[in-house]
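Team,

Forwarding the record for the chain on the shared tracking sheet. I've put the sequence and predicted structure together so nobody has to dig through attachments.
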Amino acid sequence: MKKLRVAFIGVGSISGIYLDNLTQVFRDVEIAGVCDLIPERANNAKEKYNLPRVYENMFEAFEDPSVDIILNLTRPHQHFEVTRLALEHGKHVYTEKPLGITMEEGDALVKLAKERGLLIAGAPDTFLGAGLQSCRKYIDAGMIGDPVGAAAFMICRGHETWHPDPDFYYQPGGGPMLDMGPYYITALVSLLGPVSRLVSASKRTFNKRLITSQPHAGTEVDVNTDTYIAGTMQFASGAIGTIFTTFDVYYPTQARFEIYGSEGTMILPDPNYFGGPIQIFRPETGKFDELPLLFDYQENSRGLGLADMAAAIQSGRDVRAGMEQIHHVLEILTGFEQSARAGGWLDLKTPYHRPQQMQKAALKGVLD
């Protein structure tokens, strides 16, 4: 079976782990070429990874007949246009999170993909890793009884002290919910199923941010998106979940991510990662015990969702990090802002069904 060929649009900071894993781990894909608005980035990637070519612009990649999938690694506010153009050129797309920065963008992309008979899949793919897949197996087996609720916290003081280009985190399409929320919301829906309605409150604590990281140290940026967001979700199952994300607060450790059941409580791994410890509290023991990881991909396996997409295209099965999921997640993420503005509950419209559980392969890097 031939490998599907992938073209990178964007070779920024996140691209390195994709390049590592697509050249060294995953066997169902190969890289056709790379493209970036800063040619030096693309040329460096070509040299380091011995890639076939550098595209002068994204249209060269879209028009390359050997390319099957476009990997969209641009900034969030660019996701819609790059994905739209790739679909119009007849390419499947795997996009970094989120699908778009508004539901109008997400709706338009899903409609276009369906009209063209093409697939969109997307990050985050951490829910496919050993940590959260093991949590799913334990929860589905009833180890905490029936899920009744969940709580997720992403607390930090922002990215301007360490990120080389932090400005966009404080513009529309950024903020803690659209930036980090996808990890938590994707994990929650993959474990608990669809959200039926939600309500939220939000604010921006600071109107300006001073960048202290290089190369823009000393630059002050305006904050044009909310940076303190608290939301409540009612799942179709009846479970109720809360999520809190902020760029405004000092906090010493990774805040906990928990699911509460009728017979126990589970502390989940940080959904920004593929592995991590799982702890369970049962009344029989009266304490938290650590559970083993039961699946592959504990290490940083970004690109796993893309490899799964390629395997799904070849076999005809559903894509695990597929269009329905990233569309539903986008509605939840943007729904929090909409609810906060309106001051009430928001009913969700997008359908969602949990993707099939990961399967352990005889050879790592080959997906079912």
